[in-house]
User: Fold this.
Amino acid sequence: GGGAYGAAKAGGAFDPVRFVQQPQVLARIVSAIFSLIVFACLVGDGYISLPEDSRLFCVFNRNEDACRYGIGIGVLAFLACIFFFMVDVYFPQISNTTDRKYLVLADLGFSGLWTFLWFIGFCFLTNQWSWTRAADVYIVADSARAAITFSFFSIFSWGLLLTFAY
Assistant:
């Protein structure tokens, strides 16, 4: 076997081609791209103003919490993907089984939590979008729909990361 958390495989040279071909690395890259799309759509086109009023408001039913939630989980998911990507790079070099155990459990716990938070985010954004007046959205409707769509896709990409961590 591979020892506790793959500790028997620790050491050796880093092969970038083999590393990028690992399923968990590919899923992490996809998750990072999805989170980047969600928060970029919300930061770029999530806030609009009416011609008669210069104040900005969230495109999702004028609910600031909807935009803040989407941006918040998107940014944190992107940063977590970067962190766990770096963990994936250095993981084969870690020979201490306790450190490996805590990193795997952290990945498992974070992936599980973020799968749930993306589900909540998808439901929240979809609900607020259903209550949004068509007259308020003009041309930003596509960005709002993209944020909802990639929130939905993120549920599955983070669920896949959860499975790989398990």
In short: The longest helix spans residues 97-130.
